[in-house]
Amino acid sequence: MGNYQKTVKSKFGFLSKFYDIFDIVFIFNKKTNPRYGLAEKIPDENLRILDICVGTANSSIIFAKKNRKNEIIGIDLSPDMIAVAEKKIRKQKLKNINLQPMDATQMTFQNSEFDIATISFALHELEYGLMARILEEAFRTLKNDGELYVIDYEKQSNRVKNILLSIFLRIFEPPHMSQFLQYDWENILKDIGFNSVKTKRYLFSKLILANKPIQRTLTRR
Fold first, then answer.
1. Lower Cβ count inside 10 Å, N or C end of the chain?
2. How confident is the model at residue 157, as a pLDDT?
3. What CA–CA distance (Å, rounded) separates 218 from 221?
4. Between the CA of residue 74 and those of 107, 140, 161, 163, 197, what are the distances in Å?
């Protein structure tokens, strides 16, 4: 676990300096931007939202500007990414985002604290075991009937787009990306306990939606 933490902090300490450049591919059309697609799923209500591996808060900022009633808590293992995120949040004078340094594989939150959990472009960075641990923690900290939203890379049906994505992933992303793109998300999430798994495709990416079922307590007669 210690090696994982050291690797993440080192990698994203470096990437934090230009991380937001990667989002430029999404800025030209909001309809193909998965972050805006996710924001449309979240109502402007008094909801507690956990943004896991918040990074530079690109997703959280979109939620916060659209939904002033949401309370958004972003966590990340990288202090450098959080520092960039906090600067952006202050600049835009957003009051409904709070950031905390935290390891997503062992969160300090209590069970059933959040209405919604989101993870944007983070799970592909991790080997399967660590990724599954984060999803288990998301499940634990969600309320019954809470919702999980995951944004991450997706193969493209368009040949040219698929070639461009493959080149990008080969240069910038971990070597296990070929396996990651083959994951059966419905089975992965249902094994953890989620249900109602649905997927919507966006540019170079997809949005996965899942629900934590209501866990009924049986009473003895």
1. C
2. 85
3. 9
4. 12, 16, 31, 33, 23
Which stretches does DSSP call E strand in the chain? 48-52, 71-76, 97-101, 114-120, 142-153, 195-202, 205-211
Q: What is the Cα 153 distance to its own chain's centre?
A: 12
pTM for the whole structure: 0.92
87-111 as b/e: b if 16+ CB within 10 A: ebbeeeebebbebeebbbbebebee
The radius of gyration of the chain from alpha carbons, rounded to an integer in Å, stands at: 17
Alpha carbon distance 15, 17 (integer Å): 5
Question: Distances in Å between the alpha carbon of 137 and those of 3, 103, 188?
Answer: 20, 10, 14
- End-to-end Cα distance, the chain: 46
Write down the pLDDT at residue 219.
45
Query: Which pair of tokens denotes residue 21?
Result: 């450049």
Q: Tell me how far apart the alpha carbons of residues 182 and 40 are, in angstroms, rounded to a whole number.
A: 27
Give the position of tokens 């933490």: 5
- Which residue stretches of the chain have pLDDT < 70? 1-2, 216-221
How far is residue 86's CA from residue 50's CA, in Å, rounded to a whole number?
16
pLDDT tens-digit series, residues 10-47: 988 888 888 898 888 887 789 999 999 999 999 999 99
Q: Say if residue 61 is exposed, middle or buried (CB neighbours under 10 Å; 0-12, 13-18, 19+).
A: buried
